[in-house]
Amino acid sequence: MKKNNVVKLVDFINAQKIPSTSDVEELDAFPLSKEKIILRRMFAFLCDFVCILTLKNMLYFSYAMFVANFLLPLTSAQKSTMIKMGNGWEVAIFTVVFFSYFLYCNFSLGGRSLGSHLMKLNVIDEKYPFDSEQEVWQPSFMQALKRTLAYMACYMSFGTFFFLSLLHEEKKGIPDFFSATRVVSDEWLKGFQACKRVDQEQVRININSLEKAA
């Protein structure tokens, strides 16, 4: 092979180099630190909280109907005693519904709860924006579980922990840090996915060009 036909791989790639999505912080179009979604996150959680209260009340109503209509051997006084729950039971039922709701949404629905759908938000894997080869952006089961447990901690703090996200530059909260996830808008995610596809396509073009040049 003649010397002038020898292709130096490093020189060729450097000549064809384009901005990579593996270095997202350098892409002005997708600055994670400038995602202004804190108000949308607050409204989303408020929607989720209302949904959880509704589910809890529906569960209690179903239980009351079951006791009233199917436990026929019991007297009215006994049924009334069973239906009337103390504060401990109320908190326990709410906690179970709270945990189940967020675990289901974080894993089965890919991190999108009812509030997230309404506010057009997504929970993504922390590594997704920084790994050019990672195609799955949804959180794993362990990430969903950790995120739900962090929500439980925030709930048990009477909401105090939720406001700590206001102190962080990127407005990341305890659930985000603990589960290695982050919340982004629909607009950001769709735009970033399109950029990532272009980036991957450019890499394939470069490889094909290299094969032809060789």
> H/E order of the elements?
HHHHHEHHEH
Q: Which structural class should the secondary elements be placed in?
A: mainly alpha
Q: What is the number of helical segments per DSSP (H or I, 4+ residues)?
A: 8
Radius of gyration: 25 Å
Query: Which consecutive residue ranges, at least 5 long each, have pLDDT under 50?
Result: 1-10, 12-28
Global geometry:
elongated
Short summary:
The chain has 214 residues and is mostly helical.
How would you describe what is shown here?
- This protein is mainly α and 214 residues long.
- The chain has eight helices and two strands.
- It has helices at 9-15, 38-70, 76-83, 87-107, 114-119, 141-156, 174-179, 186-213; strands at residues 121-125, 181-185.
- Helix 2 crosses helix 4 (87-107) and helix 4 runs antiparallel to helix 6.
- The termini are close together.
Key words describing this protein structure:
8 helices; single chain; 214 residues; mainly alpha; disordered N terminus; two-stranded antiparallel sheet
Task: Indicate the topology.
Elements: H1 9-15, H2 38-70, H3 76-83, H4 87-107, H5 114-119, E1 121-125, H6 141-156, H7 174-179, E2 181-185, H8 186-213
Antiparallel strand pairs: 1-2
Helix pairs in contact: 2-3, 2-4, 4-6
